Amino acid sequence: TETERTERIEAATETLGDDVLILGHNYQRREIVEHADFVGDSYELSKRAAESDASHVIFCGVTFMAESADVITDADQSVLLPSMEASCPMAGMAEALQVDAAWDQLTAAAPDADVVPVTYMNSYADLKAFCAEQGGLVCTSSNAADAFEWAFERGDTVLFLPDKHLGENTAHELGMADAVAEWDPWAEGGADAAQAADADVILWDGYCQVHERFREHHVTEVRERYEDVNVVVHPECRREVAAAADVVGSTATICETVADADPGDRWAIGTEIHLANHLDRWHEDVEVVPLCGDACMDCNAMRQIDSNYLTWLLEELVDGTERNRIEVAAREAELAEVALDRMLEL
Ligand code: 13P
Ligand code: SF4
């Protein structure tokens, strides 16, 4: 039962003491965030991992987050992911090998185009390493506009990977809405590489299967239902959904928006359902409603982590066995860190 698992998790963490740090992403199940030492977005959690001296960091999130934590922690610290099934589909939509091949197409078709690759944090370490090698950087949804500006100081065109919606919303924020090309290097009849390189921003054809499902009518309906409602959505949502919202912001911004709301305010939350539910529990004086009911906006990757896996991982550690270590190869880690550091210096 959940009570038994809670007792076992507590017993194991007591035995392990400061040797273990449990990090919980905001999109994790309630029974996971309740056992976490820190709860936050991917960026905050990586910073917590880097600041910690714990020998083992248990990252309750998805693979790309655990990889970033491994890149920025010391070599003698291990990062463990409770379930190896927890992989973000969006990160898998831009594999480094694929991007490398597309990059060759682009540079061959438009040799004079000065393209700077910018990858969203939601990507694997080898793609971050590729971006560093090609003079680019990493960004999160909180600093994408700054990352674009950094790139435009060094080149004429941004190739943004993997999330086309974050790329489009950021271009819009910077007043570049018309200077955007969607590019699928393998699409029949699609824009060719030379055409794409004429744009200021080239969008890779990736998306988040959770945030992409929000539609403009969800915003219209919630406004019809609650006259006084405010709407906040994540920038991984489609452009028209972002345009219809009152606030567009990263996971951290969504949390701050609700934390700063006045008692009695009503906020509809356009992001993963677990975060909407946590915000509802954490801020009893604010009326929190999920933007699209609570039926569908559930991240299947995040959901792979449950208290069974957490119990298993901790009890194995108590027995002296490390399971599910996420380790980025040394050369890749070195380059990925360059791309992450460029972001941190923004
Ligand atoms: P954050 O960087 O906001 O934690 O993003 C995680 C995520 O998966 C958004 O869909
Ligand atoms: Fe990936 Fe979307 Fe899930 Fe975030 S919410 S981990 S971007 S699939």
From TrEMBL:
Where, subcellularly, is it found? Cytoplasm
Q: List keywords of the entry alphabetically.
A: 4Fe-4S, Cytoplasm, Iron, Iron-sulfur, Metal-binding, Pyridine nucleotide biosynthesis, Transferase
Which InterPro entries does the entry link to?
Answer: NadA (IPR003473), NadA_sf (IPR036094), Quinolinate_synth_A_type3 (IPR023515)
How does the cofactor bind to this protein, according to its record? Binds 1 [4Fe-4S] cluster per subunit.
Cofactor(s) the record lists:
[4Fe-4S] cluster
Q: Where does [4Fe-4S] cluster bind?
A: C88, C208, C299
Q: Where does iminosuccinate bind?
A: H25, S42, Y120, M121, N122, S141, H234, P235, E236, T251
GO annotation, cellular component aspect? cytoplasm
User: Which coarse location class applies to the principal site listed for this UniProt protein?
Assistant: cytoplasm
- Enzyme type, top EC level: transferase
Q: In which pathway does it act?
A: Cofactor biosynthesis; NAD(+) biosynthesis; quinolinate from iminoaspartate: step 1/1
Q: Which reaction does it catalyse?
A: iminosuccinate + dihydroxyacetone phosphate = quinolinate + phosphate + 2 H2O + H(+)
According to its UniProt entry, the function of this protein is described as: Catalyzes the condensation of iminoaspartate with dihydroxyacetone phosphate to form quinolinate.
Assigned protein family: Belongs to the quinolinate synthase family. Type 3 subfamily.
In the record, which residues are listed under signal peptide?
none
Q: What is its EC number?
A: 2.5.1.72
What SUPFAM superfamilies is this protein classified in? NadA-like
Single Gene Ontology MF annotation: 4 iron, 4 sulfur cluster binding
Q: What is this protein called?
A: Quinolinate synthase
Q: Which gene encodes it?
A: nadA
Q: Which organism is it from?
A: Halosegnis rubeus
Q: Which GO terms describe its biological process?
A: 'de novo' NAD+ biosynthetic process from L-aspartate
